[in-house]
């Protein structure tokens, strides 16, 4: 039996809401089938008050073994490094205190969502609460636990980043850990099973992207990279390969990818739906593509854009259907 304890720190709770959308199987069946015992979750467990405090104390004192500690939300270290901006009610201690104490007892520690991983939206702007991720402060190693911190298994914090993170990314990580395997991690400690993909992979707007047939407004169905801030060609994630609920993703819903799996995505220095340009050229080019190659490809693609694709890109629906070809 694998034990799991979940803390919710400074965040919106959206990653738990996303996790509840796990399907085939749903979350309760998945945990039961994998032999994962949920010791406590502040939003899903029935234990409250003294019962919840007893569970936390038992784990912290080593009376109950903890295999996986999941933390959702950034850690508020303020004011003045006390962590008292967010207290765990009834315990007299901050979430910062409990996170540090329980992390020391866990075989594996998982940061669920970009806030827990890097600070995320909670750390945006002036960051008055001094919020950080578990092992990163933005893109910089450090955070609450420090760059050199390691769990009892010898590994760093596993950053299942996303805002909210995909339920499949969380459940796949938990299943691997329960089976005695640790997922391979990328340079920001994100599981490579999703971080080796780009949001661009499987995007329904890829035909428009290939011809640089661009939407000008959010209601249009063309590629959103050129004018509407989409950076799916740079953002890691398999969102369009295994969409939410089998159907949804940001780009499938007509909204640009904002790279929510990355550190500091929350402060892009421009509106999320604007594409920064220099001399009409987007500043953020696709991953691994030199600027000269992109310019040459874009010019050729636009010159070769079929009428169907050019017309549909600037419409809110398909107005020109594919050409019908008679069989030979």
Automatic annotation (TrEMBL):
Domain NADH:ubiquinone oxidoreductase-like 20kDa subunit: 12-175
Organism listed in the record: Fuscovulum blasticum DSM 2131
Amino-acid positions noted as binding [4Fe-4S] cluster 2 in the UniProt annotation, renumbered to this chain: 200, 203, 223, 230
Family the entry assigns: Belongs to the [NiFe]/[NiFeSe] hydrogenase small subunit family.
Cofactor(s) listed: [4Fe-4S] cluster; [3Fe-4S] cluster
EC top class named in words: oxidoreductase
Pfam name, any one: Oxidored_q6
Subcellular localization(s) per the UniProt record: Cell envelope
Protein name as catalogued: hydrogenase (acceptor)
Self-association and partners: Heterodimer of a large and a small subunit.
């Amino acid at each position: 039996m694998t034990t799991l304890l979940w803390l919710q720190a400074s965040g919106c709770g959206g990653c738990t809401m996303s996790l509840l959308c796990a399907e085939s199987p749903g979350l309760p069946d998945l945990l039961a089938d994998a032999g994962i015992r949920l010791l406590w979750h502040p939003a899903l467990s029935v234990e409250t008050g003294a019962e919840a405090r007893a569970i936390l104390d038992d784990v912290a004192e080593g009376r109950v073994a903890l295999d996986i500690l999941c933390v959702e939300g950034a850690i508020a270290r303020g004011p003045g490094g006390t962590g008292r901006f967010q207290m765990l009610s009834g315990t007299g201690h901050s979430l910062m205190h409990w996170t540090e104490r329980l992390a020391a007892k866990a075989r594996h520690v998982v940061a669920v969502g970009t806030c827990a991983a890097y600070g995320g939206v909670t750390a945006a702007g002036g960051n008055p609460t001094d919020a950080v991720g578990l092992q990163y402060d933005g893109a910089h190693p450090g955070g609450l636990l420090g760059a050199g911190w390691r769990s009892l298994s010898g590994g760093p914090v596993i950053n299942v980043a996303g805002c909210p993170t995909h339920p499949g990314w969380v459940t796949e990580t938990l299943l691997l850990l329960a089976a005695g395997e640790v997922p391979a991690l990328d340079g920001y400690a994100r599981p490579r099973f999703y971080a080796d993909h780009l949001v661009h992979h499987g995007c329904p707007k890829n035909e428009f992207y290939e011809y640089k047939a661009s939407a000008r407004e959010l209601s249009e169905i063309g590629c959103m990279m050129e004018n509407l801030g989409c950076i799916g060609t740079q953002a890691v994630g398999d969102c369009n390969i295994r969409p939410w609920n089998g159907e949804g993703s940001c780009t499938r819903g007509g909204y640009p990818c904002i790279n929510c799996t990355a550190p500091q995505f929350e402060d892009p220095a421009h509106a999320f739906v604007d594409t920064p340009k220099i001399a009409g050229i987007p500043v953020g080019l696709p991953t691994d593509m030199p600027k000269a190659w992109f310019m040459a490809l874009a010019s050729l693609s636009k010159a070769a854009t079929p009428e169907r694709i050019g017309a549909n890109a600037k419409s809110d629906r398909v107005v020109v259907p594919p050409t019908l070809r008679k069989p030979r």
